[in-house]
Amino acid sequence: MTTHSHRGYDLLHNPRLNKGTGFTPEERDQLGLRGLVPPRFTTQAEQQARVLENFRKKTAAIEKYIYLISLQDRNEHLFYRVVMDHVEEMMPIIYTPTVGEACTSFSHIFRRPRGLYVTAQDRGRIRDVLRNWPGRDVAMIVVTDGERILGLGDLGANGMGIPIGKLSLYTACAGVDPSRCLPITLDVGTNRDELLADPLYLGLPQKRLTGAEYEALVEEFVLAVQEVFPGAVIQFEDFATENAMHLLARYRDRVCCFNDDIQGTAAVTLAGILSATRITGQPLTQQVVMFLGAGAAATGIADLIVSALVREGMPEAEARRHCWFVDRGGLVVRGRTDLQEHKLPYAHDHAPAGDLLTAVESVKPTAIVGVSATPNTFTEAVVKAMSRHNPRPIIFPLSNPTSKSECTAAEAYGWSEGKAVFASGSPFDQVMWGGRTFTPGQGNNAYIFPGVGLGVIVSGARRVTDSMFYAAARTLAAGVPEASLNEGLLFPRLRDIRAVSARIATAVAEVAYADGLATVPRPADLPAVVRASMYDGTYPSYL
Question: Is the pTM of this model over 0.70?
Answer without folding.
Answer: yes
